[in-house]
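Encode chain A's predicted structure.
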Amino acid sequence: MMPQTEIKKYSPVSKSIGTKLPEQEYNKIINFVEDGLFLNTADFVREAIREKINNMEEIVLRDIPLSQQRTEIIEYAKEHKNEILDADIIANALRLDVFEVDDIMTELIKEEILEEIK
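Encoded structure for chain A:
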């Protein structure tokens, strides 16, 4: 007689969150599901939560010399010359301090370097 082995199913720990939504928002979610963008309302909520968490995670800023920051900002401007150059967007993209990026961009504008790139 063979010994019986116990089969354990893997069950990830999960928690439930209940919430009420304004009817207008609920109807928009239902429309997304009906359009096939999400499997169901729970799928929409999980995706929205994941996206919010990812956006909220702290960006680790790089500590590099101002001269290197300036060079990287100029390169970024060249690569995105058809876009609006905003200090916040550039700072996030390059993981730099927004105030330092703003100061460098102000210098580049005064020196007309950004104008030459456009």
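Helices lie at 23-34, 41-56, 66-79, 87-94, 98-110, 113-117.
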